[in-house]
């Protein structure tokens, strides 16, 4: 059974207490793990080592170093232009979801392979399964509409023996759907998670890229480049974040007995009222909004369940407290199936 991650020095405001990235980046240790990071590290005017975060290749190489140093992932790479997300924030999401499960488990985070998580939009980077398995021993299903993302994520899993048997990657055949076509009729998940596309169109995403490039001072008169990258399906969805999360809420109601807690990141506070209204209309029993912040960036998790407290305890007893030997697979399916 994995040990919970330690509490690092609290130097980055807002990150979860168990987040390994609360301390400053130790570039010496990261360069030892990934020597190619050295070309992107420089000393600023304050005499402090820092990274050129406006450079997509520098960000990707930093991710590679962080994954090697903290999560023992030796083989990790993504195609040019694919999302290389900020790892500290991704880790935060997982730690807050762990706290949510702990509420149903007498304050203790349930760990190990009994806990199954669905990552909607896993991406080529496969970040959530990597961190979630390392920190808590959880198993994951990762879905994506992009065949290239699924292929690359599979290569990452295959290239790291520690991930063997922990991540099942599934192609979503219908680009508009979220849970439909992914969650099987009798399949159970303790959590679902998602970093939804924020923009409503390609034009909106490109405008946001230009604004970000101007803020970073990287326009240079040419086409702006996203420092974290991102393909079209990773950045925009017709109707934007509000439409995507509305559909997620609608589809979750059809899977109400298949999952303990559904969740999604929400970037825009304007999305919240419509999502709350849909969840209330569809009969969510409990809806949580969990604030997250890293420096000046503020985001939030919205999590919801259709199971009442009695049903939640029944879920706990059936899935996390029973001895799962040969019958382990049976506990992954609904008892009425």
TrEMBL record:
EC class of the enzyme, as a word: transferase
Keyword tRNA processing found: no
GO molecular function, one term: 23S rRNA (adenine(1618)-N(6))-methyltransferase activity
Main location: cytoplasm
Pfam families given in the database record: Methyltransf_10
Keyword hit for rRNA processing: yes
Subcellular location per the Swiss-Prot or TrEMBL entry: Cytoplasm
EC number: 2.1.1.181
Family (UniProt): Belongs to the methyltransferase superfamily. METTL16/RlmF family.
Main function: Specifically methylates the adenine in position 1618 of 23S rRNA.
Protein's recorded name: Ribosomal RNA large subunit methyltransferase F
């Amino acid at each position: 059974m994995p040990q919970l991650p330690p509490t690092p020095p609290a130097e980055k405001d807002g990150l979860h207490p168990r987040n390994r990235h609360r301390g400053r980046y130790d570039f010496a240790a990261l360069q030892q793990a990934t020597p190619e990071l050295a070309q992107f590290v420089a000393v600023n005017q304050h005499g402090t080592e820092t990274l050129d975060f406006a450079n997509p290749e520098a960000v990707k190489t930093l991710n590679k170093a962080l994954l090697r140093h903290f999560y023992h992932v030796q083989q990790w790479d993504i195609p040019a232009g694919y999302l290389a997300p900020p790892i500290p924030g991704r880790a935060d999401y997982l730690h807050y979801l762990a706290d949510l499960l702990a509420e149903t488990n007498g304050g203790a985070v349930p760990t190990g392979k009994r806990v199954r998580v669905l990552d909607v939009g896993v991406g080529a980077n496969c970040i959530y399964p990597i961190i979630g398995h390392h920190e808590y021993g959880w198993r994951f299903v990762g879905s994506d509409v992009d065949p290239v993302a699924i292929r690359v994520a599979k290569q990452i899993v295959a290239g790291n023996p520690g991930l063997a048997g922990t991540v099942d990657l599934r192609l979503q055949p219908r680009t508009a759907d979220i849970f439909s076509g992914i969650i099987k009729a009798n399949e159970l998940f303790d959590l679902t998670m998602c970093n939804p596309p924020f923009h409503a169109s390609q034009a909106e995403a490109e405008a946001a890229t230009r604004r970000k490039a101007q803020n970073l001072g990287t326009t240079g008169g040419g086409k702006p480049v996203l420092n974290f990258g991102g393909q079209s399906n990773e950045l925009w969805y017709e109707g934007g974040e509000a439409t995507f999360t509305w559909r997620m809420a609608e589809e979750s109601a059809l899977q109400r007995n298949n999952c303990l807690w559904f969740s999604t990141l929400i970037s825009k506070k304007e999305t919240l009222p419509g999502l709350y209204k849909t969840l209330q209309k569809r009969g969510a029993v409990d809806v949580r909004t969990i604030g997250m912040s890293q420096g000046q960036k503020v985001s939030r998790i919205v999590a919801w369940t259709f199971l009442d407290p009695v049903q939640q305890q029944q879920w706990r007893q059936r899935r996390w407290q029973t001895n799962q030997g040969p019958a382990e697979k049976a506990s992954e399916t609904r008892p009425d199936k």
